[in-house]
Design goal:
The complex is a heterodimer of chains A (215) and B (481). With 215 residues, chain A is an all-alpha fold. Chain A contains eight helices and no strands. Chain A is 76% helix and 0% strand. Chain B has 19 helices and two strands. Chain B has a two-stranded antiparallel sheet with strand order 1-2. The model of chain B has no long low-confidence stretch (mean pLDDT 92).
């Protein structure tokens, strides 16, 4: 598959993460995650076209089902049931957030991370963007104050790592990947239950309201 | 065969318990299954001690270190089952939990035990990762067991922090796969494949990968600064679960880090991993020592003690040689003594209805057996002679005194601080007089005393003599470190 098309796909993943940083609405964040997961599905499909390994189609199916359809459905239902349309603030203001995103992106492209981005020399640009997506997803987790945003950030981190793995040629057997995906699915279900519980007990999805545990 | 029946009994128990509608049946099945796991863990350990690596298929195998951990899981798992039955009977009497909750607890408990056994025996690093992640998933609801705001908060932190940690661990794990073709063994790459392909692994990638693995799985171990979930989770989980989290999960996660250490050392030499272990180890000891002094909750106190002891183990593996031997020994003693302390903490909680140190007064008179157990546990876990942990600490510190005198003396200083801090709380809880107390005097139930008594006897006996098969396993396990 053309490197430019692959770069276009990985750019979309990167941009969805930027959108998740900037949006004030949970709905937009969920849609961004869904788009991100759909791009991941396309990458798996591209892998199938290259290898003709039919079991990769299973991965395509399960990723589509779990990450593109089921997970966003869970989240949208949570938003509707708990009236969580608007996300609570971030710890850092938007300009500072953008500056940090730029710094993280620059860092991922710097010579410090060449050992990682040169795993497959022809994919250096793709791996650099995937690495910056990993960093930005990590930053998203620590910068968001809201439970749904934190869950979406963790899942985006997982997506970014999987994208890195694909471009680094480190894909595992489809059976193992389905095992990982099943784990992620159970994680999503448990995490959504906890979002509801947090809202029920604290009357808010803002994690800064949780102050019961101190030394 | 042993492994298959071990997994089968755990999985079948977990599934069977879902269907049970009578409490007595639930308890009998749990106890029976706990006993089966205990017997199997001994059989596996004996088999490994006499015949070497035990393997039942391409997917699972147990080496000496794994056998020690399986033994720990089996012993603590059975003790936890026995103690949990008695503990939840008392909580039911008080109207704290009902049958549905108890059932949920045992179902998740056995799922947790199965996940830990899987993580220890999995031949593939990816399988091990899936299993470790499964330990997080199975215990999240156990931490929020009492369904209060504080328990939900503890469980949420546990879920998020551990998930992030494990994703970083996953990233590190995948970086090790750069040394092997993805088509190897039909895509099933095992620990041995990674170990035999170290010549193809870029040293810089190996270093980066190990940092990610250490941070990732180190989160599960509870090494500072990734320890923040631990006090919250330990203090909010039911007391019997605390014993499993501190006694069994910690060594399970540590064993995964050590497997990666072996691969990294083969690529870049042992200096790199040893330095990282020393840094994380001493940091954990310092953090725990500083916070323990001002702790106000005795279950959180035990969590900080776990962080300190994880740090001591890391220090032992960092110093290497006899230090590694001390670290394995320390792991064994620490697991056993934490069972005693968490079970005693459970008894204190049942008697006083509070985990706050300030609310526990004159415990030595109110619940004498539990108090003696807790005090003995304190003496053992802080390394007071002549108990085993004193010996393991001496091994670890003597390994570091030549090459890292500053670190070693700092460790001694902060360990002393831990002892003083712990002692302050022990004095307040067990020796202070409370004239106005109207606490009912006496232990609640003999079965709340028997499991910790057996474990304290085990630690005391093992402080002076180790069974031959355990000694063989320890010596065989530390050869590589």
């Amino acid at each position: 598959m053309s490197i430019f098309f692959l770069q276009f796909l990985v750019d979309i993943i990167f941009l969805t993460l930027v959108v998740m940083h900037l949006t004030k609405k949970n709905f937009v964040a969920v849609v961004a995650f869904s788009v991100q997961s759909f791009v991941l599905t396309l990458l798996f499909f591209a892998s199938f076209l290259e290898t003709n390994n039919v079991s990769i189609l299973l991965m395509v199916f399960f990723t589509l089902l779990i990450k593109v359809i089921l997970a966003p459905m869970f989240f949208l239902r949570l938003i509707r049931e708990n009236h969580l349309s608007f996300s609570v603030n971030t710890y850092l203001s938007m300009p500072i957030t953008l500056v940090i995103i730029a710094v993280l992106t620059f860092m991922a492209h710097s010579s410090k991370f060449v050992p990682l981005t040169q795993i497959v020399p022809t994919h250096q640009v793709l791996l650099s963007i995937a690495l910056s997506s990993i960093f930005i997803a990590l930053f998203l987790i620590v910068n968001r104050k809201e439970t749904i945003s934190q869950i979406l950030s963790v899942l985006s981190l997982e997506n970014s790592i999987v994208v890195f793995i694909i471009f680094a040629g480190l894909e595992q057997s489809p059976n193992l990947q389905i095992g990982i995906l099943f784990n992620i699915f159970v994680w999503i279900m448990i995490a959504t239950v906890f979002v509801s519980l947090v809202y029920k007990h604290f009357g808010s999805s803002n994690v800064t309201t949780m102050k019961n545990l101190t030394d | 065969m042993y492994l298959i029946s071990l997994f089968s009994s755990l999985v079948i128990t977990s599934l069977l318990l879902v269907l049970i509608k009578k409490r007595i049946l639930l308890e009998i099945i749990s106890l029976l299954s706990g006993a089966i796991v205990l017997v199997h863990s001994f059989l596996i350990a004996l088999s490994v001690a006499s015949h070497g690596v035990y393997s039942s298929s391409l997917f699972f195998s147990v080496d000496s270190f794994g056998a020690l951990i399986i033994l720990i899981i089996g012993c603590i798992g059975f003790a936890t089952s026995v103690y949990s039955v008695a503990y939840f009977r008392e909580e039911t009497k008080k109207g704290i939990v009902g049958f549905r909750r108890v059932k949920e607890y045992f179902v998740l408990l056995y799922a947790f035990l199965a996940a830990m056994c899987l993580a220890t025996t999995a031949n593939s690093p990816i399988f091990a990762w899936i299993a470790i992640e499964a330990t997080t998933l199975s215990t999240a609801f156990l931490i929020s067991f009492y369904n209060k705001p504080s328990t939900i908060e503890g469980a949420w932190k546990y879920l998020i922090i551990n998930s992030i940690g494990l994703l970083l661990g996953f990233f590190g794990t995948m970086l090790y796969f750069t040394s092997v073709p993805s088509t190897l063994n039909g895509g099933f790459v095992g620990w041995n494949d990674l170990l035999s392909s170290t010549s193809h692994l870029d040293p810089l990638i190996a270093k980066i990968a190990f940092v990610f693995v250490l941070i990732g799985y180190g989160t599960k171990v509870g090494l500072a600064p990734m320890h923040t979930w631990k006090p919250d989770a330990y203090s909010k989980a039911p007391a019997p679960l605390g014993a499993l989290l501190a006694g069994a999960l910690l060594p399970v996660a540590f064993s995964v880090v050590l497997r990666f250490q072996k691969i990294t050392d083969a690529v870049v030499g042992s200096l790199f991993s040893h330095q990282l272990f020393i840094v994380f180890g001493i940091l954990s000891i310092i953090v725990a020592a500083l916070i323990m002094f001002s702790a106000r909750n005795y279950k959180r106190l035990l969590a900080y003690s776990s962080i300190e002891n994880a740090g001591i183990m890391a220090l032992g593996f960092g110093f290497g040689g006899i230090g590694a031997f001390g670290a394995v020994l320390h792991m064994l003693y620490h697991s056993c003594v934490k069972v005693v302390m968490f079970f005693s903490a459970g008894n204190l909680l049942l008697t006083y209805g509070s985990a706050k140190i300030a609310n526990v007064k004159n415990a030595l008179r109110v619940i004498p057996f539990t108090s003696i157990l807790f005090i003995l546990g304190f003496l053992i876990v802080t390394g007071t002679p002549p108990f085993g942990i004193f010996l393991s600490k001496v091994y670890i510190l003597s390994a570091g005194i030549n090459d890292h005198p500053f670190i070693t003396f700092s460790a001694i200083f902060f360990m002393t601080m831990v002892f003083v801090g712990f002692l302050k709380h022990i004095t307040a809880m067990f020796l202070s007089k409370d004239e106005e107390s109207n606490q009912e005097i006496g232990e609640k139930n003999i079965w709340l005393i028997i499991p910790p008594v057996l474990f304290i006897l085990l630690v005391i006996i093992m402080s002076f003599t180790l069974p031959a098969f355990i000694e063989t396993l320890i010596h065989d396990a530390v050869i590589h470190y």
